[in-house]
Every structure is written in structure tokens, then in C-alpha cells.
Amino acid sequence: MFGVLLGAMLSQQSAWASVPALVVSNTVKVASLMAAGQAAGVVSVKVAALTEGVVEAMFVTKIKAALVVVLILGFVATGTTIFASRMAAGQDDKKPAAEKPVEPAAKQAEKLPEKKEKKEGFTAWGKEVEGGGLHMGKEVDGLQAGLGFRPGEKRSYSHGETVTLVVRVRNVGKKDVTFKYIPAYFFDSPPPVTDGEGKAAPKLRLPTDGHEGEYNPKELTLVPGQEIELAEVKLELRPESESGKKTVQTLYGTGKFQIHYERLMYSSGRLDIGSILSKLATGKLELEVKEAEKLPEKK
Known about the structure:
Blueprint lengths: L1 H16 L3 H20 L4 H50 L10 H7 L10 E4 L3 E2 L2 E2 L8 E7 L7 E2 L3 E10 L5 E5 L3 H4 L4 E2 L23 E5 L4 E12 L11 E3 L2 E5 L25 E6 L9
Parallel strand pairs: 5-13, 10-11
Antiparallel strand pairs: 1-4, 2-3, 4-6, 6-10, 7-9, 8-12, 12-13
């Protein structure tokens, strides 16, 4: 601000310096004549006219100086305004971007990718075996047995495929359950199979070799809610026309078969280990087998 005022003053001084020399000379003469006239008591017409001209010249000069000051102040004010606007715009650029409004939870849930449905295994849980007969009990001392598929494997099968079945037990009681079992039993005594009409299908033959210590009893303890697999049974599916080959580990024919273990362990003989599993049976697992699709003939 001080610089602006100083500029204005200097401009005014330069304006005065620009007064014509003639005006200055006339002013001096007028002053002299006025002094003489006052001494004589009279001011001549010529002196009055000269005085009027000098006054007009001085007035014009002052007007010019004032206009220069006004213009300078106007330029300074305009420049200050522009500078302030640019500074404000720069500060606005540095301000953090406004946060996006948070969408309602319902809309957010709509945008979330759909979770893939978890595939679970299927098990046909069994009945209690007591006194050599089947009863409707679901468990014995908290233990329950079942035969089923692994996750994602419950479907229709065709000839030429191999299906895998698993023997499961679980503790549905409130206390720990300890039991013994012989791994070879699930192959040595394969599960019976019936067709869609309830008629017995050819008996399964399962290999018992390849199981380390398959006849050595094992002992397990299940806590409440625990479930485990005891054995895995693989069956190759073939058409009825090939049943004369009597191949092990093979199921022949088409239709909806039902497979189940009538008991999970020996109940008599030298291999009877007094296991609770001898009182457990699995549920009847349905297995649908279709003929293999015929490939189109090549031309």
C-alpha cells in the first residue's frame, strides 16, 4: 500500500514538472504585475487576463495528475483481485477430494459378488441293528453310521465311469464314544445291492489286498459332533452284458440301485472284536446308473 501511495506522489510531482515554461514565466509576470498593481492600488485588464490563463493551466495540470493517480489505483486493485482469486483457486485445488457418500448397506449387498454355494457330501445315515434284525433306531450309544458320496459327487452315472462311495460314522450324542473296527471288513463283507424293483443284484466283489494291516483292529474316539470316514469303496460301472466276466469292484446293469451295509463289523467268529459297529447299519444309498451315450458315427 505504501508503494502505491509513493507512486501516486511521484506521478503528481512529474505532472507538475511537465507544466510548460511559458506558463511558469507568465505566472512570474502576473505575480510581479499584481505586486506592482497592488502598490499602485489598481490591477490592469491585461494582468487579470493573464492571471485567468495561468489559473486554467494549473487546473488542467491538476486534473491530469488526479486522473493518473486514479488509473494507477484502478490497475493496482484489479491486479490484487486477480492475484487473490488465483491464490484461492490454488488452495481449492489442494483441498482433499470430497468423500463419496456411503451407500446404504442394502445397496452394497446387492453389488457384492454372489458366494458360490458350498457343496457338501451326501450320506444315507443308518438304522440300529439289534438281535440280528433291523430296527428304526438312528444311533447306538451316540454313534451313527452312513454310506454316501463325497462333496459334488452325488449325481447320475453312466457305464464306463467309476463311482466312489464312503463309509462314515458320527457322534450324535453328548459324550465321547470309543470303538474298534477292522479295516478289511468293509471289503471282505461288501454291501448288498438291490435294483429299482427291490430285487437282489449280483453280489459285489471287492479286493482286500493292498490294505496295510487290514485285519489288525484299530481304535478310535469321537467327540460329540465329530464325523469321520472309515473306508472308501470304488465301483466300476459296466453293462449287464459283461456280468459273466465276474470282475471285482464292478457293478453291472442300469437303473436305480440301492446299496447299504447291514452291519459295519463282525458280530461272531474269530474276528468278532466286540465293536459297537456290529450293531450299526448304514442307510440305503441310491445310485442311478445309465447306459453310456453313443457317439455320433464318423462319416
